[in-house]
Amino acid sequence: MSRIIQNAQVVGQGGGSDAPVSILSLSFSCRDLPKLDLTSASDPQVVVFTSKPHIRGSDFYEVGRTEMIRDNHNPDFITHIDIEYWFEETQPLRFVVVDVDDTKTNDLTKQDLIGVFETRLANIVTAQGQELTAPLKYQDKSRGIITIRAEEKILSKQTVELQFAGEKLDSKNFWGKSDPFLKIFRARENNIWEAVHATEVIKSNVNPVWNKFKIHVSKLCNGDYLRPLKIECYDWDSDGSTSFIGVFQTSLDELVNGKKGFELINSSKKKNKGLSGVIKVLTVGITTEHSFIDYICGGCEISLITAIDFTASNQEPYDPKSLHYLSPNPTEYEK
Known about the structure:
By secondary structure, the chain is mainly β. The chain has four helices and 16 strands. 6% of the residues lie in helices and 39% in strands. The strands form four sheets. The chain has a four-stranded antiparallel β-sheet. A four-stranded antiparallel β-sheet has the order 3-2-5-6. Strands 12-9-16-15 form a four-stranded antiparallel β-sheet. A hairpin with a 5-residue loop joins strand 10 and strand 11.
């Protein structure tokens, strides 16, 4: 395993300064992963490596990693990994999927290896719908499949703050109330839904109020306020499984323009035309994160005044008699 996984510091890509470059956002799903834990399902995580073949002796180094998803053999990872795409360069990629056993370390050799897939970034970009599905291999055996999706990232300085609440959600537990949470998906151009956020689970509550959260507009909808968003509500179970409660569709444009409530619909439910509760929008707000350059261009001026006292009588700062003595107590100047 140590020959497959190389732990490395996350560093920038770097390429020829004159070469055409785009920022791609990679997202991941896995299916049919094996069970490697004795008492529960695997806890998978995807780690992405690349190398610079134009540099002799260049080893694979880590670009980024997704979150770990507990007890799930068919995970849809929310964390996206950004990578520079240099049109004129060969960019090998290695996707390593591990079952996380020790959450206190980033050392991948301490985790169980599920499988590996290697390709080139150009193969993902040129795949139909910019989506590539391939088997994960371990010792020449298939261990599930991985799907990698790429989309050119539209850089945005805007962040949206959202808060949702549920009302009269269906109970999926025989002896008690549901443990609901929300998953937010954005539509891709090929009509595939891509997970971008999940709320926390609220235990035993059919009228939950989820915490506020912030998400970059570029991640939520890639800067397109009219891009369809799908929000699904699930009941979480202690074994890691989930039960579908209902779904609705919206867009950031609709949220920003004031729509406050959405019906959750479960099409497999015949009663009440599938109505399974209501999701209310408690908070929606857009903020712009200005960069240092924005402030400079906007006329911001910074003044710095520095004074140095060269008086010989000040003595050394390590001398208790000095007015500049480095002491835990305030000096005469500091008072």
